[in-house]
Design goal:
The protein is about 20% helix and about 45% strand. The chain is of the alpha+beta class. A hairpin with a 2-residue loop joins β4 and β5.
Length: about 160
């Protein structure tokens, strides 16, 4: 499969597998590409996914997909706590639980809601794998928006 034959559906399926294996699945840790970054990587043949981020409670990152050493897709994100009603560990576990369910539907876009232990995770976005933007957030049982992440991305063309 060359870069021109990598369809949107094949790209999306790869991104879902990569996301499920790395951050959610807890695998793929590689040496940092930049000072103080946390890097995760997933490979299938000539396709390589890398998630590289900085921080913890408030964090900034970028995901990329390369095909045959050429960038074909990317996403930038910034996440942060909004209140003391949740800590970084609880937010992370809530996100991992929600994303596990989302990835089981073989997607990472399209809107999604998941509630566990009184915390509601919501992802809202527009677009598709080729060009998208969105926000995910966690709201407490009392209705307090305690966490938010904003993201955008899409295909990369030469």
């Amino acid at each position: 499969m060359d870069t021109l034959t990598l369809t949107a559906s094949a790209l999306e399926a790869f991104v879902v597998r990569a996301k499920a294996a790395t951050y959610v699945g807890g695998t793929g840790k590689v040496a940092p590409a930049r000072t103080a970054s946390h890097d995760l990587e997933y490979r299938e043949g000539e396709l390589v996914y890398r998630d590289s981020y900085f921080g913890g409670t408030d964090f900034l990152g970028q995901e990329t997909v390369h095909h045959a050493d050429r960038p074909v897709w990317g996403m930038n994100y910034y996440g942060y706590l909004l209140s003391d009603d949740i800590d970084a560990y609880t937010a992370g576990e809530t996100i991992k639980g929600a994303l596990t369910q989302l990835y089981r539907q073989n997607r990472f876009l399209g809107g999604f809601r998941h509630t566990v232990d009184g915390l509601s995770y919501v992802d809202e976005n527009t677009g598709d794998v080729l060009r998208f933007q969105g926000v995910e957030h966690i709201t407490t049982a009392e209705g307090v928006r305690a966490y938010e992440l904003r993201y955008h991305g899409g295909r990369v063309l030469d």
